Amino acid sequence: MTKLTLETVPGFLQTMDERLRNIEHSLNNKKQSSTIDSSKKSYNLLEAAKYCRMAEPTFRTYIYRRKVAGTKFGKAWLFLEADLDQFIANYRRPTADELKTKAFEKLTSKKGGGAE
Fold it and tell me: What is each CA distance from 54 to 48, 58, 83, in whole angstroms?
């Protein structure tokens, strides 16, 4: 170990500051990666069916028709909450106003395209 003198103190402090910043940076990266992993909630088949508020046999039908994303490990199924939310969103029924707006947009786009 080198003895500190008045001439070497500024360099030593700069080196220590850089080392501390590197440590802080690596700790922050570890915190971010651990929060990302823990935010992914997963469900087994029964829990996923309950989450979607369906009977298990109905939910199995959607699985085998590949309408809902899931992973099978041996005999066990695993579903991510984000995939279940997407599955639910895909089967959302539009409101009457949304249907009217969509129909109006189709009608006006055909008229505009044929007039040119």
Answer: 9, 6, 16
